[in-house]
Write a structure and sequence with these properties.
With 134 residues, the chain is an alpha+beta fold. 22% of the residues lie in helices and 39% in strands. It has a 6-stranded mixed sheet. The two termini are 20 Å apart.
Length: 134
Amino acid sequence: MYVFVYGTLTDPVRVESVVGDGRCEFDGPATLEGLHRVEGRYPTLAPGGSVDGRLLDVDDAALERLDRYEGVDTGLYVRLGVPLADSDASVQVYVGRPDRLGLGERVEWPDEATFAVRVRTALERSNGMVHRRE
């Protein structure tokens, strides 16, 4: 399965330390359309624009370790599937909660019930998807 990374996990040394013995390999550069990167205590994404990053090809064990690293269980980040252009596959993307990351700018998400639903709505409205880059 693919994961789109755009921050600390673009560093191979960091990825290796996080996933341990899980299978994980970089599979080239990519661009996520529909969200852009914003800086805070940790980088995250906000509605609109695009962000360049990398694709990671991971197994279930590596994905579980990435979820722990990103704080999915504590609600720091949510993980969502985003379509991969020209494919039936989807790519997992981590988006951090702006109220928990000390962002330097205000981030507006659609007004929905949960943060994950708000991110999903923004992606659907912008036809968000991941494109491989050469």
